[in-house]
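Page 42, continued from yesterday. The earlier attempt failed because a stray header line got pasted into the input along with the sequence. Redoing it now with the clean sequence only.
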Amino acid sequence: MKSTDIMLDVTSVTGLARETLIASTLHLPDDMDDRPSNLIFAVHGGGYTRGYWHPPFADESYSFAHWFTDRGKAVLAIDMLGMGESTRPEPESDLSGAMIAAAHAEALRQIVSQWGRPVDVTGVGHSMGGMMIIAQAAAHRQMNRVAVLGWANEPMILGDTDVASLLDGLSSSGYIATPREPMRRLFYADDVSLTLIEADEAHGSTTPVTLGREALTPGIVHAAAALIAVPVLVVQSAVDTSPAPEKEPAYFSGSPSVELQIVEAAAHCQNFAGTRTAHWARLNDWIESRS
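This time it went through. Structure tokens are written below.
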């Protein structure tokens, strides 16, 4: 796998008074002279960075990016605006979900514009990134299909905490750490080692309060989900955020095709599950069947 870090200037679409950059990594197959015709645009969840798709602390068997590039696809992983190495605007309250979705769309546009050949784009968002990929797909028609991993449009289950408690604990503005200990039962299945869990937690990011509040607001992307007009895949794990996964597809009423997949023997963070390669294989089959 060939990986290149790229800082993408998205100032023009944010309306912010300072330079605004999206940090990204483009992962390409090793054995291809040309860029592949399939690109996965991957957006991480709250408290994470683009390293979720290629963890620097784990062997390559945990790398979503490595698995997919081995199968001839490119993976563009970004740090969400306000997270990781992307710009953290001050004051944080200047941010909005719509602005962040527009920044992500501009980052994707810039990469696709340099591709040099037609490219088929699959948007993949995990957890809070699922919320953002829904918002982006509804407002910016640039993806051929969308996979929503671990995001619930139904009222969410959140491990050893709950939506009301998290909302009560939010500050009015700023960048906050995810309360990871109460999330362990939700994030990781029993077969995930404590060493891996602690390494994952150590590589986390703060999250803009704006996105935290939106993610905890019931129905925040219901209207956007109904506007998506491309095939949608909904993925929930055996332990995950939705109390009723079978109800999730109905929110995507404008899509010509909606499929639900359940990742068995896995919790919310599918990329660390013992069944992760089976999950990636089913996701890959879905991408190819909808191409």
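Notes: Residues 97-113 form the longest helix (17 residues).
Reminder to self: strip header lines before submitting.
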